[in-house]
Design goal:
By secondary structure, this protein is an all-alpha fold. It folds into two domains: 15-67, no CATH class; 76-300, no CATH class. It has helices spanning 15-24, 32-41, 44-49, 69-109, 127-143, 148-157, 163-169, 172-181, 184-193, 198-216, 234-239, 248-258, 262-276, 293-300, and strands spanning 55-57, 60-63. Strand 1 (55-57) and strand 2 form a beta hairpin. It is globular, with a radius of gyration of 23 Å.
């Protein structure tokens, strides 16, 4: 880590000092011992991230009157619940699309000996992007060097693997980039098999890889703008003007659309609804959920 000299950072605070600092900024803390227990579990910097919208202004760190520690902490807890639920369904999507992409590409490009055409950059439209994926996967594979999969293919095939084996080791982010790097012909084969268009699938996989990484690394979902914005049709945007395509709700719609079976979609909608209804009505807009979110999710994921 590079050290920058002569720049003085904020000094570390004890848990007692953290509580006092929050009180100084106007946060109401009825039970200081309980607050300190929370701050021992939840980083002070993380905690205050959930309190940003309660500041008097973006230039003032003082909180508006009546803001309580308990209300801010509830947002932390609900955000964690959302991440836990979303991870489960993103995993289903990840497994499904790894299968679809491997199947679609290999039967298009790897159907003649030596069946290793996925190692040839000329079989990809974005060759530079493909090479970046190869370099990244070399590091990913090293994480699994002790796995039976890697050992078997190293011993028998000199480390080369069929694409469907590579998919088991590849991160969802790289899977998304791999699909994006393909020629239209392979993109279309895969997209048509899952009932969507190639550009929509490129966007949706990118969105879900971003959401997966946020959930996996405990990033804040609440009061966060998402990039890239989710891609919806013009008809969808005209119909649902209340949906912001850079919101968590937009990403949840994408997740529901990309789930491979109706039952998973229904359970996702139910699980999400059980959490969202625990939010204070004043806070729901911070995750982009409109009042009719259940109806939109049900309709747009074809569960009605």
């Amino acid at each position: 880590m590079e050290l920058v000299e002569n720049i003085e950072l904020k000094k570390p605070l004890t848990f007692d000092e953290q509580v006092e600092k929050l009180k100084t900024h106007g946060l109401i803390i009825a039970h200081e011992d309980e607050a300190k227990k929370v701050l021992r579990k939840v980083n002070y910097y993380r905690f205050t991230g959930y309190a940003l919208q309660f500041r008097q202004s973006k230039f003032n760190s003082d909180y508006v009157g009546g803001t309580t520690f308990e209300r801010v902490y509830k947002l932390c807890v609900l955000d964690e619940m959302l991440r836990d639920v979303l991870r489960k369904y993103i995993e289903k999507v990840e497994v499904y699309y790894k299968t679809q992409i491997a199947y679609g590409f290999t039967f298009s490009k790897c159907n003649v000996p030596p069946y290793n055409q996925h190692y040839d950059a000329t079989n990809f439209y974005n060759r530079l992007g493909y090479q970046e994926i190869v370099d990244s996967f070399a590091k990913e594979r090293n994480y699994y060097k002790d796995s039976l999969i890697v050992k078997h293919h190293k011993k028998k095939y000199g480390g080369k693997m069929p694409l469907w084996v590579i998919m088991e080791l590849m991160s969802f982010s790289n899977v998304s980039k791999l699909y994006s790097s393909m020629y239209f012909s392979e993109k279309d084969i895969i997209a048509q098999a899952v009932g969507t268009g190639r550009e929509t699938l490129v966007n949706n996989l990118h969105c879900l890889s971003v959401l997966r990484n946020k959930c996996a690394h405990a990033a804040r979902l609440y009061n966060t703008l998402f990039n890239p914005p989710a891609m919806f049709t013009k008809a969808f945007l005209r119909k649902y003007t209340e949906v912001k395509n850079d919101s968590l709700f937009a990403y949840v719609i994408v997740l529901a659309k990309r789930l491979p079976d109706t039952e998973s979609k229904k359970v996702l909608i139910s699980d999400i609804g059980n959490i969202v209804k625990q939010f204070d009505k004043r806070d729901i807009s911070r995750i982009g959920f409109p009042e009719n979110y259940l109806a939109i999710l049900t309709k747009e994921s074809n569960c009605d």
